Amino acid sequence: MVMNSKSTRNILLVTALAAVSVLSACGGGNDKNNNAGSSTNGGTTGSADKEVTLRLFSNLPDRKSGQGLAEQMVIDNYIKANPNVKIDIETLAEEPFKNKLKAYMASNESLDVTMVHGGAELNTLVQAGYVKELNPAEYEGDTYKFLPGVYKSFTFNDKLYGLPRNSDYEVIYYNKKLFDDNGIKIPTTYAELLEAGKQFRAKGIEPMSMNGKDLWSFAAFFQDLVVRLTGDQNLMLDAVAKKKNFTEDENFLAAAKLLAEARDTKLFQESFMTADYGASQNLFTQGRAAMWYMGSWEAGMATNDKLPEDFRNNVNVLKFPVVEGGKGKDTDLLAWNGGGYSLVSSSKHPEEAKKFFDYMMSADQWAKIVWDTGAAVPAQKYELSGKESELQKQLTEVLTGATSTAGSIALDSGTPKFKDDAQNAFGKFFAGGSTPQQLLADLQKAAETQ
Amino acid sequence: MQKVFNNKMAIFLFVFPGILLFSLTFLVPIVLSAYYSFRDTLSPGTPSAFIGFANYTELLFHDSRFWLALRNAVLLGLGFILIQHPIAIFFAIMLDRLGGKAEKWFRTIFFIPCVISVVVISKMWLSLLDPTFGAFNKMLDSLGLGFLKHAWLGDSSTALISMLFILIWAGFGWGLLFYYAGLKGIPDDLYEAASLDGASGFRLHWRITVPLLSPVITVQITLAMITALKQMETVFLTTNGGPGDSTQFLAVYLYNKAFSASQYGYANAISILFIIVCLLATYLSNKLTRSDATEF
């Protein structure tokens, strides 16, 4: 084949141009996406009649039940009241959500409102300047009715960066039928809990389901033990903040020994170290484990018609048992506020976004809806509707009867690095059988090097 | 056409898209990674300070998890080379001898694990090895070996070995395929000549098959080391490095440091060391297994 160089050059140029245009098409596509929101309102914000599309990023992919449904209802309500606003919602399950939020943070993606996890994870977003500071004074009063002390995990250097959506606290869910059928006493002390564990094990029933793969539940369990021993909600938080020492305070050692007892008497199910959240929940909801150590956000279990009826009728709540000789009461509650929402700094419609955010956080929206649908326990004052499930009533009792609360889970009160290291220390303790002393040394090291 | 290749402009135009893509997806990330590895970044875009080699000294001299992850990778590599490959060669020979329809059938069956998604494989083994309802423990029970029952992936004493087993099982088909293809390239008359000389069975293969397969073996050993080092998906999906740290591998560790612990700079330091280790492993395995090309 012979070609003159001119036509060759032409052909090559065309090919090259084609290649370049393919490459740039990718970039062009992105631009289009990015502009889609702003082009509809031409860059002006706040004007009530202009079409605005807000972007909300959430960790609630299930829009048909539980908290996802509640979130969707709030959005629908807002759109009904503000027909000029569209809300573009992106949802991902917990872990992918966390990762993508970090990617968004890195690229300064212009979301408007995002779900955030208080404590360590929000701290990263704050340091990157990705989320906006809020004025707490604006959220006082009857429109919002936030409970006292709920801003703790959302406050860094005395500045507020988000609002909590739920009150979270650890309880033990138990299957009453399994206790009754096997004639086992519902435990009120830690020794009784371990004893119940032994009896269930003897009968071939898993005593307590634990999401060991996720590791954080161990830290909560440990914090519960520390509080039961000392009655001091701040001791563990102080240790994370390096004001106390894990290895020097004998209460920590006592708590770690109690934790070792749970491990050694096999209180948790056989494969607890490979069980993630879903696996540990399944074991409990299928009636194969008598108890589940988990948070109040699972209030919806009693009304979830996908779960066996037999289970729904028998699920009850137990306060974390007291420790014999400990100074803590069973009304000292490991309660904190984990999940919430923040406004994103790079928002293209800051005013509209704030309007929507404020609407969502007002007491008669998210708080009321999650409570009425039985999806969670809000961080705001709520009125009983009279239609609550038995489980919700019990959970309310636990919260309203609390004589002290933690405000933050110790794991989240440090940096993400501390969280990772501390979780790993618990992992080593439960899987590798390290001693209580080693656990404390590891925790101390994690606190020091965070 | 010759003219085209003499034309510098043409060469440039042909090569440029490739170089561009390679730079954007390969060189730039590595350079950026190196840049971030000298900083205490929480994630790209966050304020950070230059901290010199601090990440590296921490990693090399204080971080036992890094060394553990590296050790596990080496163990896995050895597992591939010493367990998986001999079995793969053995089955490749058997398969080669089988002939006919049966050969095709078994070839397909052996290769099935390789076409199944890693996610499916991970979930499958997670279920099979589950201590309460897993088929593996039930099988032990029915064989009267109930005392061997175990929380295979949940116990730090057996987790690593179970993980190695899953990975060896999952990668077996690839090894087999490579050796099988290599075997097909060995002329039959060599075997005929050898058997006329009185060689048979194991000797025949030890003296003829293995040496003639050596180029394939060399490639396979290098590949095994690389595969072992970059092991990520299965570990991430089954144990995420746990329980404790017993199945920690470099890529999983790196991922967790970057995205769970928000130590982005530190994770980048791991990734740079990771690249160095991979290059070293490739270099060493090439060096150690290099033999003169066999002619036949």
Automatic annotation (TrEMBL), chain B:
Keyword Glycosyltransferase: no
Main location: membrane
Location of the ABC transmembrane type-1 domain: 70-285
Keyword Transmembrane helix: yes
Keywords noted in UniProt: Cell membrane, Membrane, Transmembrane, Transmembrane helix, Transport
InterPro entries per the UniProt record, alphabetical: MetI-like, MetI-like_sf, UgpAE/MalFG_permease
Transmembrane segments: 12-38, 73-93, 105-126, 159-183, 204-229, 264-284
Location(s), subcellular: Cell membrane
Membrane topology, record value: Multi-pass membrane protein
CDD domains in the record: TM_PBP2 (cd06261)
Family that this chain belongs to: Belongs to the binding-protein-dependent transport system permease family.
Protein name, entry field: Carbohydrate ABC transporter permease
Species of origin: Paenibacillus rhizoplanae
